[in-house]
Amino acid sequence: MPPEKQIVQDDRDARAEELESAFSYDGYQVVRKELFAHLRDPAIVIRKDSITFNTACITGLEDVVYVHVMFNNDLKRIVVRGCDENDKDALRWCVAKPDKRKSRKMSCKPFATLVYQKMGWDSECRYKILGYRITFEGETLYVFDLLVPEIFHEGQRKKNAVDSQDNAASTKPVNSRKGFYLDDIVGTFGVPVEEHRKESEVKQMDGYVSMGILTGKIAPEAGKD
Questions:
Q1: pLDDT (tens digit, 9 = 90+) per residue, 98-121?
Q2: d(CA 12, CA 194)
Q3: What is the pLDDT of residue 224?
Q4: Where residue 172 falls among pLDDT bands split at 50, 70, 90?
Q5: Is the pLDDT of residue 58 over 90?
Q6: What are phi and psi of 154, to 5 degrees?
Q7: pLDDT at 165
Q8: Which DSSP helix (H) or strand (E) runs through 107?
Q9: CA–CA distances in Å: residue 17 to residues 8, 14, 25, 199
């Protein structure tokens, strides 16, 4: 290595050692995934009468056709895990064909209504939540944090049409394909490293209930109507 390059390298090594010796996670925040482009990331879309898992979700749980959907009211999270077709409260989350699987709209107005109520969501909007693929007790799960949704207006948002022409003229079409986040999300980078570490852990399944239990709909026993 030429002498001038060796000097530069020595300076870099010295700086790296200095940073390493004094490094701490104190003061750092893990930047939210939601603040970056995420078109190909696993996600769930919740509407006031249905939920839909995107193709990335379906692909991430290979060969899974039926799932348990669980809701945690304290953490405001949804967890999804694969299950067998005949398991209690099993839900078919995709269309399975010999050559491929694809997402499907899962009609579930009672469940969606409860989620909207508990989250205080606007019934005129749909909500997209990114999924985090984790392993818990040797099982692959998706965790969806409902506190960090991307929000989309459904169709056109109209004002109260009491005054005919004036109000009609003031009605503005809303781009239903353009999402937005709440101010407390877009106004921060993320959460502190230690808090992020704790939030990422799923230590136990206590507190999660299945969709069937949450809505009061219990799956019939095998062999019964």
A1: 888 889 999 999 999 999 999 999
A2: 29
A3: 43
A4: very low
A5: yes
A6: -90, 110
A7: 42
A8: strand 105-107
A9: 14, 5, 16, 31
DSSP at 6: H
C-beta of residue 161 within 8 angstroms of C-beta of residue 132: no
Residues β-bridged to residue 151? 127, 180
CA-CA distance, 106 to 110, in Å (whole number)?
A: 12
CB 106 within 8 A of CB 51: yes
Reported pTM: 0.70
Nearest Cα to Cα of residue 106 among 146, 41, 53:
53
Helix (H/G/I), strand (E/B), else coil: 176: coil
Report the distance separating Cα 38 and Cα 60, nearest Å: 15
Three-state DSSP class for residue 123: coil
C-alpha–C-alpha distance, residues 219 and 225, integer Å: 10
Separation of alpha carbons 44 and 78, rounded Å: 10
Q: Contact, 213 vs 45, CB < 8 A?
A: no
Instruction: Name all contacts of 216-225 with Cβ < 8 Å and 24+ positions apart.
Output: 216/110, 217/110, 218/88, 218/89, 219/88, 219/89, 219/90, 222/86
The phi, psi pair for 45, rounded to 5°, reads -110, 125
- Residues 141 and 115: their CA atoms lie apart, in Å, by 20
Label the pairing between strands 50-53 and 43-47.
antiparallel
Would you state the structure tokens that stand for residue 77, as one six-digit string? Answer: 């999270």
